[in-house]
Specification:
- This protein is of the alpha/beta class.
- The chain has three domains: 135 residues, GMP Synthetase, Chain A, domain 3 (2-Layer Sandwich), CATH 3.30.300.160; 134 residues, Beta-Lactamase, CATH 3.30.450.90; 195 residues, Rossmann fold, CATH 3.40.50.
- The chain has 24 helices and 18 strands.
- The strands form four sheets. Strands 12-11-13-14-10-15-18 form a seven-stranded mixed β-sheet, sandwiched between helices. It has a six-stranded antiparallel β-sheet with strand order 6-5-4-9-8-7.
- α16 links the parallel β13 and β14.
- The longest helix has 14 residues.
Length: 561
């Protein structure tokens, strides 16, 4: 077991590495972000990595190793089986004539060391490594999916008609899902081609090819998925949606399955609902402190409406879930109506929309109001009826949270008016609007400093904004990922949010009532201190969090001059 947070806290204070007030702030951040204290300390850059590792290593009385600085041979990595390494967070990094050196998160696990010594027939020298270092090093186990599937198929006998007699479809599906999970994919696309079946993974919002296999496998893979998700195997001409659950080494993974008929056959898309996704929140997604305080102020009220806006896949629902996790106490009744219910919230009453039984967002919302709720989450405001009921619920003493498809925060206001909600009702109920996008984060393992000129910046960004964020120099130092084994040579690892938080002040309420257009409202909000997504992105470029290309990819059209 890793060093408990309370013990680490005591070590830090005794060593005078951090003052108690700052440590209390980071401890609260860790709890809210569902992070261990060591990860929170590193994420907030409160303590240098080497000092934190040294302190914990000294506690365990073992030396420290930084795996990111080593080039570990594959034959050394393979000394310990992958499943064992992932389960116990242990990495072999050097094999000498006298001993095998291993890095562990819990160097006090003598039972593991004894088992390893017995299995390898060698003496084991134990070192301590930080959890982030071990997690990154574990990626060295990830195999080439194409090669792994090809090897599986070679084990089978080909029939005389060049079709696989009994392909190991169950193993192939399991391997697809496990590999996608290890690659941090959010979705798996299994697409029929003319002469093959193509599998693609969506990682950090970008689709990439993962596997091409014989066409004969496609229908069998689809049938296997239908069986696992309790769908009709004899239906091939209509869309079907289902759910399945897979037991991985790390967790029990829920998967949402969608199968639709396309020209070449049936296409399946699997959405992996991992706890990794569930642990994201405003803090871990990089919302600045000023905006965070505005959001906290909005959800601290017992009534009103909080809206999260953005296109599909921008993290809207995840943001709302992070608020619900904070508000979820035994004293409050939280009821939701969603389509679909992606994650279970312990203690909340979650309703699944079902069009076949006429359980729509609007009808579900009406029923919720008779359930004595304190907090209501409407998965999405899609129509006039839902908008009207949601606004009236917020007006009558409920805190209502919902999502809306708009490009920026200010546009959500006329969108509600277009749905037939009177401007004075919008002004009376709205507490805050959070617009967001997700951009890929620069890989911390391979980021290098590079120079950017003023002229390069003003080609894509307004000169006034460049001056405000970067200053008036001619050249600026930023960081860029050059590509490495950890990030699959993309230069990016993980995602971070660009936020635009519009707090509905007295002046904004007046503009809403006067039916001012979204541009005027946006300018007024920026005069009151709102940071546009575009500016937030440029600040994250300056701080080495992401790249200019990523900001332009997701947010250029949202800039308000």
């Amino acid at each position: 077991m890793a060093l408990p947070d309370d013990q680490l806290r005591a070590l830090l204070l005794n060593a005078n590495l951090i003052d108690e007030a700052k440590l209390n702030d980071i401890s609260r951040f860790a709890v809210n972000s569902e992070l261990t204290l060591d990860k929170a300390l590193l994420q907030k850059e409160a303590i240098p990595q080497d000092k934190l590792a040294g302190l914990i290593g000294e506690y365990y009385k073992v030396p420290v190793v930084f795996l990111s600085q080593l080039n570990i041979p594959q034959e050394v990595i393979n000394i310990i089986p992958e499943r064992f390494a992932r389960k116990h967070k242990i990495i072999p990094f050097e094999r000498g004539p006298e001993a095998i050196k291993v890095a562990m998160l819990s160097p006090d696990r003598t039972d593991l060391l004894t088992a390893l010594a017995k299995k390898t027939g060698s003496k084991i020298e134990v070192y301590f490594a930080l959890s982030t270092e071990i997690t990154n090093a574990l990626r060295a186990y990830e195999k080439d999916l194409q090669k792994a599937i090809d090897d599986l198929l070679k084990q089978d006998i080909w029939a005389s008609n060049n079709a696989l007699e009994d392909p190991p479809v169950a193993k192939i599906v399991d391997l697809l899902i496990d590999t996608a999970y290890q690659e941090r994919a959010s979705d798996i696309h299994i697409e029929p081609q003319e002469n093959s079946t193509l599998t693609r993974f969506r990682v950090d919002g970008i689709l990439r090819d993962a596997l091409s296999a014989p066409k004969i496998l496609h229908d069998r893979i689809i049938t296997r998925l239908k069986v696992l998700s309790s769908l009709r195997t004899d239906e091939h001409l209509s869309a079907q949606d289902g759910k399945m659950r897979v037991d991985l080494e790390e967790e029990r993974l829920d998967i949402r399955v969608s199968i639709v008929p396309v020209v070449q056959g049936e296409k399946a898309v699997l959405r992996l609902l991992s706890t990794q996704s569930r642990s994201y929140n405003f803090q871990t997604l990089g919302m600045n402190e000023a905006d965070l305080q505005k959001v906290e102020s909005a959800y601290s009220k017992s009534y009103g409406m909080i809206l999260s806006t953005g296109p599909t896949g921008s993290g809207k629902t995840t943001s709302i879930y992070s608020i619900l996790k904070v508000l979820n106490t035994r004293e409050k009744n939280i009821t939701t109506v969603e389509d679909p219910v992606e994650y279970r919230i312990k203690g909340a009453n979650q309703i699944q929309v079902n069009v076949k039984t006429n359980l729509t967002f609007a009808n579900g919302l009406r029923s919720i109001l008779r359930q004595d709720p304190n907090i209501i989450f409407v998965g999405e405001i899609r129509d006039d009826e839902t908008a009207g009921i949601a606004v009236n619920a917020a007006l009558t003493g409920h805190l209502v949270l919902s999502t809306l498809h708009t490009n920026d925060a200010a546009t959500a206001i006329p969108r509600l008016s277009d749905m037939g909600v009177e401007p004075f009702l919008v002004a009376s109920t709205l507490n805050i609007i959070i617009a967001q996008r997700l951009v890929r984060q620069t890989c911390s393992q391979c980021k290098v400093k590079t120079t950017l000129t003023h002229d390069e910046l003003i080609r894509n960004f307004p000169a006034e904004l460049v001056k405000r964020v970067f200053g008036s120099g001619k050249e600026f130092i930023i960081q860029k990922g050059q590509g490495c084994k950890i990030c699959r040579n993309t230069g990016y690892m993980g995602r971070v949010g660009l936020f635009e938080v519009l707090e509905v002040s007295k002046n904004i309420r007046k503009l809403i009532t006067e039916r001012a257009d979204s541009e005027i409202i946006a300018k007024a909000a920026m005069n009151e201190g709102m940071r546009s997504m575009f500016e937030d992105g440029l600040i994250k470029v300056r701080d080495g969090v992401t790249s200019i290309e990523e900001v332009l990819r997701v947010a250029k059209s949202e800039f308000v001059s």
